[in-house]
What does this fold into?
Amino acid sequence: MDDTADTALPPGLDLLWGLRERNRRGPRPGLSLERIVQAAIELADAEGLAAVSMSRVAERLGFTTMSLYRYVASKDELLTLMMDSVAGELSVPDDLPPGWRAGLTYWAKEQLALFRRHPWTAQIPITGPPLGPRALAWMEVGLRMLEDTGLAGDEKLGVISLLSGYVRGEAQLSMDLAAALQAHPRQATYGELLRTVLDADRYPILHGIAASGALDFPSEYSEADFDFGLQLVLDGIGVLIASRSRDADGADRQDGPGPPSDGP
Amino acid sequence: MDDTADTALPPGLDLLWGLRERNRRGPRPGLSLERIVQAAIELADAEGLAAVSMSRVAERLGFTTMSLYRYVASKDELLTLMMDSVAGELSVPDDLPPGWRAGLTYWAKEQLALFRRHPWTAQIPITGPPLGPRALAWMEVGLRMLEDTGLAGDEKLGVISLLSGYVRGEAQLSMDLAAALQAHPRQATYGELLRTVLDADRYPILHGIAASGALDFPSEYSEADFDFGLQLVLDGIGVLIASRSRDADGADRQDGPGPPSDGP
DNA sequence: ACAATCTGTGTACGTTATACACAGTTCTAG
DNA sequence: CTAGAACTGTGTATAACGTACACAGATTGT
It folds into this structure.
């Protein structure tokens, strides 16, 4: 199982690129990576990431727990494979929306839809920059949305990463909130809770907002929350793009962001 | 233990506001909430959130595992208490920076510093809007930074939430990356990995960026990555604020964001 | 004094990831 | 054509987890 020394790829990713050698000897495998990954995804969709244990996955396939380890080095590796697998569901339209703003909006919303379809994807820790074939293809789509913006390559990557991080964060938040709400059903609104707890002296502004009744609505995560943040982020990206096209005219930006990472 | 029915607060928060009744009868407690929470925090700081088990915390205090349950209803409750406890470390300067941009920059960086000091804080799932006394105090500080911006109350909250979410997301990312890097040390840069894997036909833009050498630096998370995104988010907030002050002059905004959530 | 009520302990249960040994199967080298 | 290398799937074992539950001892209110 230690034949991953030839590539420097993180564990599991060599499988995705078909770089792990096949076996000649031994009985014919009764199982396959694809079936294992698919079973794990179905389980995660149905009962959440916490329900994905090696036993449960094996049980669903009619095999024993340990049999999975003939195909996968560890549970972490399985999670990595699950991630890239669902990334294949992200659809690339034939005709891209016109302009970077519409393009990135589509990109963000499509990704959010995926997170909603497979909520567990936002729970798996990120172990590195995208390296799976399907994740990279989706990244490529995002980059294409920025083609006419005059941004440098690493700036485009920075923008894509920021946006992707925003979507992931919001997806995670909405999931965690929903889970907590299901575990401990609440009837009081955020505004009501704040009013029972805050004193006007120590928390003047919050107290004012709470008193105004602006927070007296059911505290589920809504699409409007997502759109509010998305518009802000897009506006920020717009400022960067505008400053870059100003650069192209010879003017210099005053106190704007630099590139996302300092090269050598 | 079911005397939380009078308040509608989430479990554990009544403790923070001193709303859980004290006991008269029985032996004098040999332990206290504060000591438990502090021991748990020390453990999390030293060995990560995964090391925080009821056994390990109890062991550190010289008590048995089950004794903790006299003070805390569940491990989740303990995590909630840990969160609000460290929020008390966020320092409020006597003289606030001038202007919302400097103010929010301070606010974001201070919060990032807390995440760096206690990396596990970014791993605990968010179970609802902030309700602990210290978390709310910090929120109040953020709101104060926006006082002269002309934003509505719920808009201010939306801005603060977005910024807080950004910082949390970046902190989580940098932690996850560091953990993965420690578990599987890599010597190849992102650029090198991409070049071994990408073909120019399917991934033209990425291929170009990877070929340019712009990604050939050690892939640790850097402060520059954080600042890049922070500037973008602040720029986006700037656009919103500018549009709101234009509103004050009677003009209407064209295609900007709405308030973060729709009230009743 | 006695009962109510609390604290801390010990035991028990079900679940987790995975290390390891072993039986059976298939291909390859001689 | 045969011996053994290399593989697949199974069974067993281990240490750790959260927490339900019963119980002994301490303290207080009546």
